[in-house]
Design a protein that fits this description.
11 helices; 7 strands; seven-stranded mixed sheet
C-alpha cells in the first residue's frame, strides 16, 4: 500500500500554497459553479453517503460556491442548518449570490479547514467534496472535522482516484509536464488518497470508525480540446492561478497541445469531441462515541 506524498518537503510553504489556492479559486469562482453539471453524479453520491436528514447541522468544508451546501440545505430542512466555509471569499460570494436569500439557504463564512472557529461537537455531519488532498496538512483538517462532530456524527468526503483512473485531470497534467519545466517545489498530489486502503487508513488514524469507501465513476463530454482545457482550469485552483500568470503565447501552446494527450478519448457515439472519464472515491466515517 502506497502512502500519500508528504507536502512538508524542502521549500514547501503552506501559507504561500494556501494563498495561491485562494487566489486561484477566487479567479475561477463563477466558472467553477457553471461546471457543476459535469460532476453531478459525484455530488449525488457524496450526499447519499452523508445520510442527511431533516434537523441536522451540517458543515461543508472547502465549499467553494456552495454547490454541495445548497443541495444539503434542502435535505436537512425543515429545522436543519448548513454552514458553507472556504478560504476563497470570492467563491463564497458566488455561492451566496446563487443561493439568494431563501430561508433554507446555507450560511457562508470564510474559514480555514485546518483551524476552525467552531465549538466542539457542534455538527451532525461534515462534508468535504474533492478537498482533502488540497489541504497542506490534511491530518489537521481531519482532526478539526472530528472535533466539531458530535459523537456518532459522520464525515462524508470525496477524493480523486489513482492517477491512471482520472484522465479528466492527468491528461492536462501530461500536457503541462511535456511543455513546461518542472516546478521548483512540487504541489501535493491530488491523487494522494486515490487508493481505498490509503484513504481508509488515513481516516482510521484520525480517529474515525465505521468507515465505508465506494467508487464513483463519471465521464465528461467536451466538444473540443479547448473545452476540455478550460474545464481543467475551472477545477484547478492554485494551478490555474499559476498557469494564468504565464505569457499568453505559452498558454496558447498549452491549449493547442492538449489535443494530443486527449487522442485516446475521442467520442465515437456521433457527438464528436472527447469523452473523458474520472474515478473518484466517496468515503463516509463516524466519530465514535
Amino acid at each position: 500500500m502506497s502512502r500519500p506524498t508528504d507536502p512538508a518537503q524542502p521549500g514547501f510553504d503552506a501559507r504561500r500554497f494556501k494563498a495561491m489556492e485562494r487566489a486561484g479559486f477566487n479567479r475561477i469562482a463563477a466558472r467553477y459553479a457553471e461546471g457543476a453539471h459535469l460532476r453531478a453524479e459525484l455530488a449525488e453520491a457524496l450526499l447519499e453517503a452523508a445520510a442527511l436528514a431533516p434537523g441536522q447541522r451540517v458543515l461543508d468544508l472547502a465549499s467553494g460556491p456552495g454547490l454541495l451546501a445548497g443541495q444539503a440545505a434542502l435535505r436537512v430542512a425543515p429545522g436543519g442548518s448548513v454552514l458553507a466555509t472556504d478560504i476563497a471569499e470570492g467563491m463564497l460570494a458566488e455561492g451566496a449570490r446563487r443561493c439568494g436569500e431563501h430561508a433554507d439557504a446555507p450560511c457562508f463564512a470564510a474559514a480555514d479547514a485546518e483551524q476552525l472557529c467552531l465549538a466542539d461537537a457542534s455538527m451532525d455531519r461534515v462534508l468535504a467534496g474533492l478537498a482533502l488532498f488540497i489541504f497542506p496538512h490534511p491530518e489537521r483538517a481531519l482532526a478539526e472535522m472530528r472535533r466539531v462532530l458530535m459523537p456518532g456524527g459522520r464525515v462524508a468526503l470525496s477524493v480523486w482516484g489513482v492517477r491512471e483512473s482520472v484522465p479528466l485531470i492527468h491528461r492536462a497534467q501530461d500536457t503541462i509536464a511535456r511543455l513546461l519545466p518542472p516546478p521548483k517545489v512540487s504541489r501535493p498530489s491530488v491523487f494522494r488518497y486515490g487508493e481505498a486502503e490509503v484513504l481508509s487508513a488515513t481516516l482510521a488514524a484520525a480517529g474515525f470508525d465505521d468507515i465505508d469507501i465506494r467508487p464513483c465513476t463519471f465521464a465528461c463530454h467536451f466538444a473540443d480540446a479547448d473545452a476540455y482545457w478550460q474545464a481543467f482550469l475551472d477545477l484547478a485552483g492554485g494551478a490555474a492561478e499559476a498557469l494564468g500568470r504565464l505569457p499568453e503565447p505559452i498558454q496558447a501552446d498549452l491549449r493547442a497541445a492538449v489535443a494530443d494527450d486527449l487522442a485516446d478519448h475521442r467520442c465515437d457515439d456521433g457527438r464528436g469531441g472527447f469523452l473523458v472519464p474520472a474515478l473518484t472515491l466517496v468515503a463516509s466515517a463516524r466519530r465514535p462515541g
